[in-house]
Amino acid sequence: MKEGNRKVDEQAREVISNILLFDVSDPRLRMVTITGVNVSFDRAYADVHYTAEPERYAAVEAAFSAARGHIRSLMAKQLHWKQAPELRFHLDETVDAAEKLGAYLSEERARQEALQQGTDEDRG
Q1: How confident is the prediction for the chain on average, in pLDDT?
Q2: Which of 40, 41, 50, 95 is the most exposed place for a label (fewest CB within 10 A)?
Q3: Per DSSP, what are the bridge partners of residue 39?
Q4: What pLDDT score was predicted for residue 4?
Q5: What is the DSSP string of 48-89?
Q6: Which of 31, 33, 35, 19 is nearest to 67 (CA)?
Q7: Own/partner pairs for 50-53, CB < 8 Å, 24+ apart?
Q8: pLDDT value of position 104
């Protein structure tokens, strides 16, 4: 990603986040977090990365499909770019991966502590 696009990406992320928070009434899009936006250099499209609870993935995907045009038009009014980018929504799976890794590390730490306690008891 080019250095000059970071500001544009962050601006788009903030606008889309605010649209979801204040302007979209679809309850399926409540508690959805926009984790990042990558706007193409020519601003023709924007890849919007989001996360939600795993049991809501399908509903959120359907809601974004239904609201794509509405979000894009609201975005165009707020950004004052020559054109509003086509929005492409993508589930950000890094949050799920981080949670799984954290759970694994906690389990491993507990296992190591249990082994250590067993070794200490054998010595005493």
Answers
A1: 90
A2: 41
A3: 46
A4: 55
A5: EEEE--GGGHHHHHHHHHHHHHHHHHHHHHHH--SSPPEEEE
A6: 19
A7: 50/89, 50/90, 50/91, 50/92, 51/91, 51/92, 51/95, 51/96
A8: 87
Q: Using 50, 70 and 90 to split pLDDT, how confident is the model at 1?
A: very low
Which tokens sit at 52? 């939600």
Which 8-state DSSP code applies to residue 29?
A: G
Cα 78 to its chain centre, rounded Å, is 21
- CB 61, CB 22: distance < 8 Å: no
- Separation between Cα atoms, residue 29 and residue 59, nearest integer Å: 8
pLDDT digits (tens, 9 = 90+) for 62-89: 999 999 999 999 999 999 898 899 999 9
Rg of the chain (C-alpha set): 21
Q: Are 51 and 9 in contact (CB under 8 A)?
A: no
Looking at residue 81, its amino acid is W
Cα(63)–Cα(35) distance, integer angstroms: 17
- Phi, psi dihedrals of residue 83, rounded to the nearest 5°: -145, 150
